[in-house]
Design brief:
Elements: H1 2-34, H2 38-41, H3 48-75, H4 82-93, H5 103-114, H6 119-145, H7 158-169, H8 173-186, H9 195-205, H10 210-238, H11 246-261, H12 272-285, H13 289-324
Helix pairs in contact: 1-5, 1-13, 3-4, 3-6, 3-10, 3-13, 4-5, 4-13, 5-6, 6-7, 6-8, 6-10, 6-11, 8-9, 10-11, 10-13, 11-12, 12-13
Length: 335
């Protein structure tokens, strides 16, 4: 009965997340149609090869980010296979679209606990990765756009710099160890001889070192650049006239993501991220509002479709692995 209940909770979470994802897609597509079709608007048309290239880049990027989370969880002491952890992270990531900012982490914690893993390690590693994503996103925006992003951050480029510095403090190994202990007490994993308790205890001793955090930061910075290339492909696949370059679009996408993420009342940063992108496109590249709106809405649809595609690919790989038998013997030992 306990196993059935756990499976039901996971299935219910995924179903609810997919319902809200579908609503986001419908709303986004309706908004795109409201901006006028190719024949009506005169400034956008559809080029499938560029759109497929953007979809491929975005999907590969998300699979890479999920693999980074698994690596980080293993570094914290959790023994989890990549083919198990990647779909778990991607599935939980869909919880961002459920109103309320807690569902993504709650879904991940529930799934990991149901599989006998430490939910506190899962949550802490997800939070650590999210901090790195935000820090590198701010860095990408500052490097690519410089002072031109100030309108998105309250009129001063110092705001993203100070935000990045403050977030970096949260990645200090001592703070990570204290965070692990606090989460373990909150999730009642501060003691015990089971796998979850052992992983939590090991995580307190093996927080990632500064060099390892730097490597993750470089990897996520590269991911932001790939997102810039992907957005450039989406723009080439939709707009009659190309705009910007991958580096500039990387900065615009990264700044918009950060602004949308810190908007706590907006699930998935809906509307806030699009508004920031339209503003930055107009400020940095002098893109007309109508063209900027097309690209901003298309970028949202692109991001959602990439998340669904990455989750689908991860589930297929997991299914194929389960049928073929264990393929990751390293995960059975110490990370």
């Amino acid at each position: 009965m306990g196993l059935r209940w756990k499976r039901f909770r996971v299935a219910a979470f995924l179903l609810l997340a997919l319902v809200f994802v579908a609503l986001f897609l419908v709303r986004g597509w309706s908004a795109l149609e409201g901006l006028g079709g190719p024949a009506e608007s005169g400034y956008w048309r559809v080029s499938p090869r560029w759109l497929l290239a953007g979809l491929g880049l975005g999907t590969a990027n998300l699979l890479g980010m999920a693999a980074l989370w698994v690596w980080l969880a293993r570094r914290f002491g959790e023994r989890i296979e990549y083919l198990e952890g990647i779909p778990a992270w991607l599935g939980a990531n869909l919880g961002r679209y459920i109103p309320g900012k807690v569902w993504q982490l709650a879904g991940l914690a529930a799934y990991m606990r149901g599989k006998g893993h430490s939910s506190s390690v899962a949550v802490l590693s997800a939070l650590a990765l999210q901090i790195v994503v935000l820090v590198t996103g701010l860095l990408a925006a500052v490097l690519a756009l410089g002072g031109r992003i100030e309108k998105a951050f309250g009129g001063s480029v110092l705001v993203p710099i100070l935000m990045a510095a403050g977030l970096l403090l949260l990645l200090h190994p001592a703070i990570l160890r204290r965070s692990t202990a606090g989460l373990a007490r909150l999730l009642r994993e501060d003691s015990g001889d089971g796998p979850a308790g052992k992983a939590t205890g090991q995580a307190r001793e093996e927080a990632p070192k500064s060099g390892e955090t730097l490597l993750i930061g470089l990897a996520t910075l590269a991911a932001w650049w790939l997102y810039g290339v992907g957005l450039w492909c989406i723009a080439a696949g939709l707009l009659e006239d190309p705009i910007g370059d991958p580096v500039t679009l990387m900065g615009i996408y990264a700044a918009s993501y950060v602004v949308g993420y810190i908007a706590l009342i907006s699930p998935g940063g809906l509307v806030v991220r699009e508004g920031a992108m339209i503003l930055l496109l107009a400020t940095v590249l002098s893109v007309p509002a109508g063209v900027g709106a097309v690209l901003a809405v298309a970028a949202r649809i692109w991001a959602i479709v990439c998340e669904l595609a990455a989750f689908g690919v991860a589930m297929l790989l997991r299914y194929a692995s389960d049928r073929a038998g264990p393929t990751d013997p390293e995960a059975k030992g110490a990370p």
